[in-house]
Design goal:
- The structure holds 2 protein chains of 2 kinds.
- Chain A is an alpha/beta fold.
- Chain A has 2 domains: about 10-185 and about 320-330, 3-Layer(aba) Sandwich (Rossmann fold); about 185-315, Hypothetical Protein Tm841, Chain: A,domain 3, CATH 3.30.1180.
- Chain A has helices at about 10-20, 85-95, 110-125, 155-165, 170-185, 230-245, 265-285, 315-320; strands at about 25-30, 35-40, 50-55, 70-80, 100-105, 130-135, 185-195, 210-215, 225-230, 255-260, 285-295, 305-310, 325, 330.
- In chain A, the strands form 3 sheets. Chain A has a 6-stranded mixed beta sheet with strand order 1-2-4-3-5-6, with helices on both faces. A 6-stranded mixed beta sheet of chain A has the order 9-8-7-12-10-11. A two-stranded antiparallel ribbon of chain A has the order 13-14.
- In chain A, a hairpin with a 5-residue loop joins strand 1 and strand 2 (about 35-40).
- In chain A, helix 2 (about 85-95) packs across helix 3.
- By secondary structure, chain B is mostly helical.
- Chain B has one domain (about 5-205): Serine Threonine Protein Phosphatase 5, Tetratricopeptide repeat.
- Chain B is built from 9 helices and no strands.
- In chain B, helix 7 packs antiparallel against helix 8.
- In chain B, about 55% of the residues are buried.
- The model of chain B has no long low-confidence stretch (mean pLDDT about 95).
- The chains are: A alpha/beta, B mainly alpha.
- The interface between A and B is medium-sized, with 21 and 23 residues.
Chain lengths: ~325, ~210
Amino acid sequence: MKKIINDPNLVVRDMLDGFVAAYPREVRLLPGTTVIARVDAPAANKVGLVSGGGSGHEPAHAGYVGEGMLDAAVAGEVFTSPTPDQVLEGIKAVDAGEGVLLVIKNYTGDVMNFDMAAELAEAEGIRVEQVIVNDDVAVEDSSFTTGRRGIAGTVFVHKLAGAKAEAGGTLAEVKAVAEKTVKNVRSIGMAITPCTVPAARTPSFTLEENEIEIGIGIHGEPGIERKAIVSSDDIAAELTEKVLDDLKLETGSEVAVMVNGLGGTPEMELYIVNKKVNEILTSKGIRIYDTFVGEYMTSLEMAGVSVTLLKLDDELKELLDAKSKAPAFRC
Amino acid sequence: MELNVANTVKWMTLANEKIQENKTYLTELDQAIGDGDHGINMARGFQEVEAKITATDYDNVSDLLKDVSMTLLSKVGGAAGPLYGTAFLKLSMAVKGSETLDFPKFKSGLAEALAGIKQRGKAEKGEKTLVDVWEPLVDYLNGQNSFNAAGFESVAKEAMEATKDLEAKKGRAAYLRERSIGHLDPGSVSSFYIFSSLAEVLKEGD
């Protein structure tokens, strides 16, 4: 294992320290926790939005903390859900009396830990609602959960629910936007090389020199199939078709596209994938309202890509266009 | 039976001892059908439990059990943290304010703990989770009028061993479907250590 780290057991703490050092105008680290919060938290007269999960998916989730997106992000150990006490600290830090919405990726550990935090917060008199993101169409029953996993589509949930909260939406309204986003977003990923959890020191799985895996999860969970590598156009077409099969878009539908690198993929290759995704959607009469190409939800140094489509309506378009100051999603 | 502050501290200390001794074994069981961290996480959590409760003075056993719960919640992580944390929290809440627990109180508290685990993990009996140890024990106690340490331990042991033949329906092992058959459920094994510790501590007191 060759990584630019210090102590493998302290990678999360070291990362968080470096993160707040980079964006002191937007975020702060709550003392004694692994919670990154908006610098002005609790933002007055506004529903609080809290997400989080295991580390190793940067810029998720801390990169999405800032005006117009999340109020706080709770970091767990690498690929391990944060504990309820940490999530509770995040909830308490952002509650301005308007209630707090939790955005949770669908993994057994995450769901249980956030659920407990919500109960503890309610016991302290804070109104808490939850939305579970399950955009990965690769596997219906994944190795980590009952139901689909939450992957890159989560970033759109942060953006749209965040915009709704910033615009003064009530807890019920912000939750409704988050649920609508979850209902309309689908993703699937693939990998050409594995990743290594620092404390584990060996790769989570192996792929042969010429082998790829379609449908892989962001922790290296098994996907749909392993096969010999094909061209970028073929990969892009397979991923796009699998998303379209599930999302069922009519001609004339409008979408936002996200072509997301998993950590070890050159931006050049992401654009090459996007070229084909764009071509396919256009040929089907689907209108592309906006496109996001880059690293949004990674898996350490895994080389690979995921494709996300979000079906838009007028409300979602307006929220997508709203201002965000989050370091990893400025618009 | 009487579960008081002193023997509950002994219970947790002995449970920690067993978990530390079997840390590698629990992790190996988890590597076979899960994500291979159960021993590491449980060992970290119970070590903190022992440190916390031996350094604190308690007036009643319910406060002690609440500290056990909160420590497990914040130190274990993964899925085991919320499950064991919920179990001890529900047990503590069911006996809130009690200085000591007699058999009827313990029996109803354990039933509450089981209900908490099932609700938290959305699991039922037969899905190869720790419910498969907790539920047979609660059922067994319901048919008893007093605590029988040997009987309690043997029910726990049999239930734990029976998870070997089950196909996992919940947790990460569920992905393996029929390939999960033939392996013990790691959470059931750690639950067995907790309950056999209780039996041993209460047997001594008889």
